[in-house]
Specification:
- A hairpin with a 2-residue loop joins strand 1 and strand 2.
- The chain has a domain of 69 residues: Arc Repressor Mutant, subunit A.
- It contains five helices and two strands.
- It has a two-stranded antiparallel ribbon with strand order 1-2.
- The chain is mainly α.
Length: 118
Amino acid sequence: MSHPPGEVPPHRVFAALGDQSRLALVALMLARGPATATELAAPLDITRQAVAKHLGVLAEAALVTSRREGRAVRYALDERQLDAAAAWLTRTRAAWTRRLDALAAAVADDAPDGTTPT
């Protein structure tokens, strides 16, 4: 399946978000905005080095951008990939809802009294 330019395949976004520490980093960046790895590590129970590693995984999924400010590197959440993943979930849910509704209708048509069995 092809993806629009700049959009990461959903499986890469979900894989990056599939870790408790990375989810905590995303939530922290949503709440506070751009920050250094040291600033992000302070409220979490992980080292700055671990935060840097997790930020690298998030960056590979295009969920995080970085910008050098003097000696510090500030990381910011790029919500476009979150929006794209949410849109994928919405499309997938709609497709499955249509399929399940069709199945329920077919089962109801086959039921002797025309009702859907429970």
